[in-house]
Specification:
By secondary structure, this protein is of the alpha+beta class. It has 6 helices and 17 strands. The longest helix is centred in the middle third of the chain and has 34 residues.
Length: 423
């Protein structure tokens, strides 16, 4: 082969290689297999033949032709062989970036009812063009202008300007006051640290005293009740009395028909009457005993001014829904005082009378809601004293107590706070 032939062969090979690269890079294919589908849009926004078709972001075909039809614009699509597109899929026109290449985007449906077949026609969603975006932007700008004009009208008012200035000054003064308040609170906390520590110690001592009082009340209740044996014996005695009365009544009734002596018959009738009365009284006593309920309570109070503790215990005996009695000891220790009161219960108020803190007096208890109770006691006829008391339930059977003694005397008034426990 001469030189001219070699040069010609190399040139032809280069041309063939260049043509192959052009065909590969341009995406041109010859005899590509697939099936055609037509998508109709109102506008295509620059879609051209050769643009890609993507299903859920995956390339599944290409646009082979774009033509105008009476309904709008028809884009002829060639879908790759083996690709199944659900018939209810949504067709739209997308772009790679703001100025990127257009493509047809296919969004799969939630439920698949069928698939597209060759030569099917689908209707796509119209893309929002730049003209529509400009119109929307103009509307937004017009509304912004109206808002700015309204703000200018408001701010330009001299009264509004003065109010804004005053608000700024008030904010500055408020910030300064908050700074001073914070500094004052910090100084107060540092100065009263010892008092806070002492208060915590007092609360600890109060809890210890409350435990001792609870132990004393438990012992007192056990001694009186004898672990339930006293009430059991009392019920058994009443039951035996009732049984004896019934037996006497039956015996007298059986003899009533055979006794002929008038004196004997008279005695028998009296025996029957007495037996019936005894039976009736025994039944009433048993009913009352079954209705009796007891509730014990202990409390520990503290007076921060005098640094003095006050422990008390009481037992409330309920004999009926309306009647009750209170038995207790106030200020257990060297100055123990007896509480012995009878009372009547009501829907909102309880009334009491008897011995209050060792003196004759009366009291009223008010129920405020489900958690709060208030009591007012007036006692000691020789030197009238008035005591006000408030209980607030903070846990089951546990109350926070505030008590003011002798509120009718400014010089002798004392205040206590503490905890009460009922069981």
């Amino acid at each position: 082969m001469n030189t001219e032939a070699k040069v010609g062969a190399v040139s032809i090979a280069g041309l063939i290689l260049l043509a192959g690269m052009i065909v590969y890079l341009s995406g041109i294919s010859f005899g590509e297999k697939g099936y055609p589908v037509q998508a109709v849009f109102g506008q295509v926004s620059g879609l051209r033949p050769g643009n890609l078709v993507r299903y859920a972001g995956v390339e599944v075909g290409k646009v082979t032709n774009v033509r105008v039809i009476p309904e709008g614009v028809a884009a002829e699509i060639l879908l790759f062989s083996g690709v199944k597109i659900p018939s209810d899929s949504a067709f739209s026109i997308g772009a790679d970036g703001l100025l990127g290449e257009k493509f047809i985007s296919i969004t799969p449906p939630r439920e698949v009812t069928g698939f597209l077949v060759p030569h099917d026609t689908v209707y796509g969603e119209n893309p929002q063009g730049m003209d529509e975006l400009m119109v929307s932007a103009n509307q937004v700008l017009a509304e912004i202008k109206i808002l700015v004009r309204a703000l200018n009208d408001v701010i330009a008012d001299d009264k509004v300007k003065a109010a804004l200035k005053e608000t700024a000054f008030n904010t500055r003064d408020m910030t300064a006051n908050l700074n001073r308040l914070t500094a004052t609170l910090a100084t107060l906390a540092e100065t009263n640290q010892g008092d806070v520590t002492a208060m915590v110690g007092n609360l600890k001592a109060m809890s210890v005293s409350l435990q001792h009082t609870a132990a004393r009340v438990d012992t007192m209740v056990d001694d009186v009740d004898n672990n339930g044996q006293t009430a059991k014996d009392f019920r058994e005695a009443i039951a035996a009395l009732r049984q004896t009365s019934v037996r006497v009544e039956k015996m007298a009734a059986s003899l009533e028909g055979v006794v002929t002596d008038p004196e004997t018959a008279k005695n028998l009738k009296e025996t029957l009457k007495n037996a019936r009365d005894a039976t009736s009284k025994a039944n009433k006593m048993l009913t009352k005993v079954s209705d009796i309920k007891t509730e014990a309570g202990i409390e520990a109070l503290y007076n921060p001014d005098q640094r003095r503790y006050q422990n008390s215990a009481d037992i409330t005996v309920t004999t009926s829904p309306q009647d009750f009695a209170v038995i207790g000891v106030h200020d257990i220790g060297e100055d123990s005082k007896l509480n012995l009161q009878l009372g009547k219960s009501g829907p909102a108020f309880n009334q009491r009378f008897g011995i209050i803190d060792g003196k004759a007096g009366v009291g009223v208890d008010a129920k405020i809601g489900q958690q709060m109770r208030m009591s007012l006691d007036v006692y000691d006829p020789n030197d009238v004293r008035v005591k006000l008391r408030t209980q607030f339930q903070v846990a089951p059977e546990t109350f926070l107590v505030g008590q003011a003694d002798q509120i009718n005397s400014r010089d002798d008034k004392t205040t206590y706070v503490g905890i009460r426990r009922e069981f």
